[in-house]
TrEMBL record:
<keyword id="KW-1133">Transmembrane helix</keyword>
<feature type="transmembrane region" description="Helical">
    <location>
        <begin position="6"/>
        <end position="24"/>
    </location>
</feature>
<comment type="similarity">
    <text>Belongs to the CPA3 antiporters (TC 2.A.63) subunit F family.</text>
</comment>
<keyword id="KW-0812">Transmembrane</keyword>
<keyword id="KW-0813">Transport</keyword>
<dbReference type="Pfam" id="PF04066">
    <property type="entry name" value="MrpF_PhaF"/>
</dbReference>
<protein>
    <submittedName>
        <fullName>MrpF/PhaF family protein</fullName>
    </submittedName>
</protein>
<keyword id="KW-0472">Membrane</keyword>
<dbReference type="InterPro" id="IPR007208">
    <property type="entry name" value="MrpF/PhaF-like"/>
</dbReference>
<feature type="transmembrane region" description="Helical">
    <location>
        <begin position="62"/>
        <end position="84"/>
    </location>
</feature>
<feature type="transmembrane region" description="Helical">
    <location>
        <begin position="36"/>
        <end position="56"/>
    </location>
</feature>
<keyword id="KW-1003">Cell membrane</keyword>
Length: 104
């Protein structure tokens, strides 16, 4: 019982440290890509916390929450990647404004 309690506290401390460090990186930046990676780490840590809670309490009720969180992380990453790739072009054009045979 004591060992189990110590392991729970240690896991909680590690999850808290990971979330705090990711939050610091989100705030400090310096670039949008650093912030995006940090927010991915933060969402992944949250998914891990929810998964650990499921294991400790022996239920599967929060699997849909984990799926929603992973979907949010994926779509946010794709959105930022598209934004950064368009920003890197520098010409302000979008893919829909080009004709099918035109090179970027």
């Amino acid at each position: 019982m004591i060992v189990e309690s110590v392991l729970h506290w240690m896991a909680g401390g590690l999850f808290t440290a990971a979330a705090a460090l990711a939050l610091v990186r989100v705030v400090r930046g310096p670039s949008i890509l650093d912030r995006m990676i940090a927010s991915d780490v933060l969402l992944t840590t949250l998914i891990l916390v929810v998964g650990a809670e499921m294991v400790v309490n022996g239920h599967t009720r929060t699997v849909p929450l984990m799926l929603v969180l992973s979907g949010v992380a994926i779509f946010a990453t794709v959105a930022v990647a598209r934004y950064v790739s368009k920003q890197d072009r520098g010409d302000g054009s979008t893919d829909s404004a080009r004709s099918p045979g035109e090179e970027p």
